[in-house]
């Protein structure tokens, strides 16, 4: 492992542990040259999964895109980066556990919505509005009225 601080090629592992979902291994490392510490994550690469989008185009599953979409919904809320990583790991695990080589973007979006509904109401509504691509406030309000996943706080 190359040190991100000094680019020295030799580091040692100080601590290793499984993530909560047991989908990755977190390793705490120390550079043997500059003695600085950093964290790495080791996970199975799921490159065989293809996402089928709403317009029927296909693309390779990208963890970074999933993290970014969740992070955008969680901006300026109490949802931490650690929680965003946990949601991402959980959704990624659910996608892999389907056993399918192709999954729809709506399947992934629904999984994210389910997790956000349990964690933060505002983040859930932000993700919902982007995921469903509402064209007007009236459409969003109608969804809120009919959705069982939206908390009573937002019921009109």
Features:
156 residues; alpha+beta; 3-stranded antiparallel beta sheet; 3-stranded mixed beta sheet; 6 strands; elongated
Coarse structural class: alpha+beta
Uncertain residue ranges:
none
Main sheet: strand order: 1-2-3
Number of domains: 2
Radius of gyration computed on alpha carbons: 19 Å
Biggest β-sheet strands, sense, barrel: 3 strands, antiparallel
Give a written overview of the molecule:
42% of the residues lie in helices and 21% in strands. The chain is built from 5 helices and 6 strands, in the order E-E-E-E-E-H-H-E-H-H-H. The strands form 2 sheets. A 3-stranded antiparallel β-sheet has the order 1-2-3, with no helix packed on it. Strands 5-4-6 form a 3-stranded mixed β-sheet. A hairpin with a 5-residue loop joins strand 1 and strand 2.
Summarize the structure.
The chain has 156 residues and is of the alpha+beta class. The protein has 5 helices and 6 strands.
Helices and strands, with pairings:
Elements: E1 11-18, E2 24-31, E3 37-43, E4 50-52, E5 58-60, H1 63-74, H2 81-97, E6 102-104, H3 105-119, H4 121-132, H5 137-146
Parallel strand pairs: 4-6
Antiparallel strand pairs: 1-2, 2-3, 4-5
């Amino acid at each position: 492992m190359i040190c991100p601080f000094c680019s020295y090629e030799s580091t040692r592992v100080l601590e290793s542990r499984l993530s909560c979902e047991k989908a990755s291994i977190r390793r705490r490392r120390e550079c043997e040259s500059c003695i600085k510490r950093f964290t790495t994550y080791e996970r199975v690469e799921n490159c065989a999964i293809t996402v089928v989008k709403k317009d029927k185009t296909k693309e390779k599953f990208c963890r970074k895109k999933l993290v970014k979409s969740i992070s955008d919904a969680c901006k300026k809320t109490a949802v931490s980066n650690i929680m965003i990583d946990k949601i991402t790991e959980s959704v990624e695990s659910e996608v892999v556990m389907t056993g399918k080589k192709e999954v729809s973007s709506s399947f992934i979006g629904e999984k994210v919505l389910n997790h956000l509904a349990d964690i933060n109401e505002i983040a859930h509504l932000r993700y919902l509005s982007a995921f469903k691509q509402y064209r007007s406030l009236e459409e969003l309000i109608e969804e809120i009225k009919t959705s069982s996943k939206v908390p009573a706080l937002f019921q009109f």
